[in-house]
Design brief:
mainly alpha; single chain
Length: 54
């Protein structure tokens, strides 16, 4: 069995947590842009307004 370096394990854990936070941020930004685009299209074409996000 390989030697387990505790510093390497902590570094990998921090790296993975940072990746998860960045992925959630990117997904949230994409969803917000899609919501805005759909809201603009619906309001201009059909006159339907979606609720405003705060």
């Amino acid at each position: 069995m390989a030697n387990r370096n505790p510093f390497a394990i902590v570094a990998i854990a921090i790296f993975l947590l940072t990746g998860v936070v960045v992925a959630i941020g990117v997904a949230g930004t994409i969803l917000l842009l899609l919501y805005t685009l759909v809201s603009v299209v619906l309001s201009s074409v059909f006159g339907i307004e979606l609720p405003k996000l705060r």
